[in-house]
Amino acid sequence: MIRAAWRERIDRPAAEVFAYVADLDHEPDWNPDASNVVRTTPGEIGLGTVWEEDFRRVGHYVTTIERFERPHRLSFEARNPRTDARVHFELMPADDRATVVSCVVELTMKGPLRLLEPLLARTIRRQIERSRGPALRRALEGVPSAEI
Fold this sequence. Notes:
Layout: E1 2-10, H1 14-22, H2 27-30, E2 34-39, E3 50-55, E4 59-69, E5 73-79, E6 83-95, E7 98-109, H3 112-141
Antiparallel strand pairs: 1-7, 2-3, 3-4, 4-5, 5-6, 6-7
């Protein structure tokens, strides 16, 4: 398994950050690997909500919210034939207007990719840890509150 973690302070209240991150329709705004995100379950976003999405280099995922504790904890499980991913977010208020977001990403390679996991781990970990937090901060701080 490849494990990556990052932490970022975002100048938005925790409730807004949670709502933005929980709605994977926003993911391509801060994750350059995500595209073609489509929610496949109706109703409000919550535990069990499912999306289908494409990831560069890895393929098509079915992604489900597996933990939904507004506004502090949120987890996704993403599955595809090549790689499974679990993404865990923890949001803690820094003050009335800012949130510290901690994220842990766990990737499990399958099939022939599993043999390459030791070779890919460092590059994947570094890419996630260096880019995702700042990209989420930039995306969120640039969105008007009324659009979240």
